[in-house]
Amino acid sequence: MTQIPESRAYDVVIVGAGPAGLAAAEVLAGLGASVAIIDEQARAGGQIMRQPPRSFIIRRWLPGGLYGALKALLRRVETQEVTWLFSTTVLGIEPAEAASGFEISTLSGNTLGSVKAKRVLVAAGCHERPVPFPGSLLPGVMGAGALQGWLKGQQMLAGETVLFSGTHPFMLLVASQMIAAGASVKAVAFAQSRRDFLFGVLRRPLILLTHWRVFLTAAHSLWRIRRAGTRIFFRHRVNAAEGSAQLSEVSLTPVDHRGSGTAGAEDKRFTVDRLGLCYGFQVSSELARQAGAKVRWLEAAGGWIVDHSAAMESSLSGLYVAGEITGMAGADASRHEGTLAGLGMASSLSLNGIGKLSRVGARARRGLAREKRFAAYLNRLSALPPGLLGAMATEDSILCRCEKVTCKTVREILATHPEVTSPNALKLLSRVGMGFCQGRLCYANAAASLIAAGRVSPENLQPFEARWPVRPVPVSAIPATISDGRCT
Amino acid sequence: MKSYDALVIGGGLTGCASAYYLAKRGSSVLLAERNEINSLASGQNAGSLHFQLEHRLLQHGSDKGGEFARILPLNAFAIQLWQTLESELRADLEITMDGGLMLAVTDAEVALLKQKNALERSFGIDSELLTAAELRKLAPYLGEDVQMASYLAEEGHANPRLVTPAYARAAKRHGAILKTGCEVVLLKPEGTGWIAQLRNSPGEEIETVRIGMVLNAAGAFAAEAGRLAHLHLPVFPLPLTMSVTERTKAFLPHLLQRAGAKLSLKQVAAGNVLIGGGWSSRFERSNGVPDYRRRPRAQLDKIVGNIALATKAVPALAALHILRCWTGTVGVTHDELPLLGEVPQSPGYFVAVGGSGFTLGPAYAALIAELMVTRRTEHDISIYSPARFDHINNFMASA
Ligand SMILES: Cc1cc2nc3c(=O)[nH]c(=O)nc-3n(C[C@H](O)[C@H](O)[C@H](O)COP(=O)(O)OP(=O)(O)OC[C@H]3O[C@@H](n4cnc5c(N)ncnc54)[C@H](O)[C@@H]3O)c2cc1C
């Protein structure tokens, strides 16, 4: 690993050191391209392979056969000649006006920097989708992914007693990992019915063959969960998270097949320290959008997903995309897309030796097709039932957590402004999306409230604008170079 | 065919406010906005209520400064409107008029301030020069190298997110019809009035209406809306940029500007500090040519320059984060004066467009509505008339 001076030029800059970024790096570095990998985290691996800090030496930090290929990939890339820029946030990507190529603006610590690249790969992954409900901001209420990250990253227990609620089977995995680590998981509650799950599999029985490892892992998780005495509920949603300064109690409410149902006598209450939620994921495509790539709204696939060619090139020439931002499909699909993007960039850069890799490409394409089929199944299975959001959000629930905008405020603004039809107009009137996260978290909920009010159809949605800086920048990081302000 | 007394092109501040003042005076009004209400400059601007001559008007020397100073009578009228606007529109617009400071850091700026003050006083704008010692009392948050400032008690800011929608609601209360997703695509004189074609999205169906008068309130697109009636209106779109910090506790009660540099600063009701002052962004291209309809692209070096200036004026900003930068397009004329009045060659075609259109939008609107309905105005606005482009429009006139 090398520490590099700023504004260096590379053949390729890869944003995101997860499976997609690593797979692309492997191809490109293998062909002799100069490659820099930038990641916000302090180590490589992305969300799924979240590594323990170097100071912890743990032999099997990721149990389970699922991760074998990814771990091997990480080890291989770590021995390659690539530049790692960790703990570095990309703030924006500017296509060069005249020539081809890009300038990538970065923030590390309190320093603004930039690197140049002939090609850029954005492989920025995804984050969990928050949903508004009473108590959603109480400390102790977390995304299941965040709980898992905690578990993986620090190898310590997030909380003593845990409850999971959501729509995504990912909860089973995290629940079982937490049990293995010594937590007491009280229950895992799905909004869907048991039949939804069974029929999902029965409709595509081949999936059992192609993805037996996943099902095996799921079965193993289930077995461990059952053995620990954890209850599994179907057709239940969170009603409220309660506690004074910290979560202490969670209530679950039964729902119908649309996800609707009001709190009442059949509610179940649990005393817990942590609530792990997973109502699906949202892709982090804001950087690709800021650069100027075309996107498309596909809620079930994670929101604003980036259009791309078979070689993974976006509508913006020279800007490639791979991984979740092309549509949620999991780590293996990301890895295959990364390989294809690496090959696409290699061929557009006319790197020597690419001819030898045709088999690698064919394998990745086959693998990707297989994973996309599974992703379609999983995304359909974990999609929010149509009435769920409406049933969960009360008037006082927080729709935008950064600006503390309630569902009631949004409803009232829509009522007094019947002409509002776009999320951007709603943002301007309500401050939804104006805070620290810049709408990365609340966009889907804002869009859902416009759709529910009949103001816009999903086909006509527009994203919030994405501009430099895509993450907040400390003012103190801005150099005080220009003092007379004459430059225009 | 439906008919109206007036068609207003554009649902920005000027258009919505004009619709309000027209409807209040009893006209039947149709406002057509091709995007959404308040979706362009009027919702994207910095919200400064600046009544002192700005840096951009001062930077070209005293001769030009004298010419640009002809805007000042409008400023005086605008101050009156802003002072009563919240009760007039029955809405909280986050208007504060707690004073504005134009800062001088360099000696050249000190000289500029003195010259500016003399000019303003001759137009009845009572700005006052404050020494560094006086500033330390009035504005302890200022950086050490501020030598002098020109203070005007009426300056301040209002929230652009709220003002135009409030005018729109008030216009509707008075019976105006506001159509969004509705683009004016053709204007033809007919009899004593006009025939207008409107294209409604998403269906794209064309609707034809008969109208008595047209008001071009299309902002940066005023030239385009002029061509709909075969007129040349020399309005140029300029791409600008803004930045905003995270919220912080109230510490900055004034509007700040610099005399010799592009800077405006204010703290809004929510606690965020807005940083602007006229730094440019850049038009995106579509098929190789600059496309004014797309949101301009932010330019990193300009943003950095803007924020560096801001931190010099108010060092406490260094403890905050920049949350977001945005861009917008403003329409200005070559002489920095608004285009306000009827086009002589095209009776019944009015225009109200100009820079500083947030500060002056209510004034533009009130005056143009008065002119359209009564054929005259109490304040003399003849120097802003589109008649100054007669030499061009004499070739264009259809009549
Ligand atoms: C970043 C920025 C900061 C600024 N800061 C300040 C400030 O601090 N103080 C200040 O006083 N001024 C400021 N300004 C200037 C001010 O914002 C503008 O002068 C003012 O908002 C113009 O208002 P408008 O109604 O004329 O135009 P707009 O708000 O642009 O409205 C024009 C409308 O017309 C519509 N339209 C155009 N053509 C058609 C058509 N054919 N059919 C239908 N609709 C059409 C457009 O869609 C648009 O909505 C700033 C501007 C920018 C961009």
UniProtKB/TrEMBL annotation, chain A:
Record has Ribosomal protein as a keyword: no
Keywords assigned by UniProt, alphabetized: Oxidoreductase
InterPro entries: FAD/NAD-binding_dom, Metab_Enz_Cyan_OpOx_G3PDH, Opine_Oxase_asu/HCN_bsu
Domain FAD/NAD(P)-binding, first and last residues per copy: 10-335
PANTHER family given in the database record: ANAEROBIC GLYCEROL-3-PHOSPHATE DEHYDROGENASE SUBUNIT B
Name of the protein this chain belongs to: FAD-dependent oxidoreductase
Species assigned in the record: Pacificimonas pallii
From TrEMBL, chain B:
Family annotation (InterPro entries): FAD-dep_OxRdtase (IPR006076)
Taxonomy, superkingdom: Bacteria
Coiled-coil blocks: none
Transmembrane segments: none
Keywords in alphabetical order: Oxidoreductase
UniProt domain FAD dependent oxidoreductase: residue ranges: 5-371
Protein name listed in UniProt: FAD-binding oxidoreductase
Annotated source species: Pacificimonas pallii
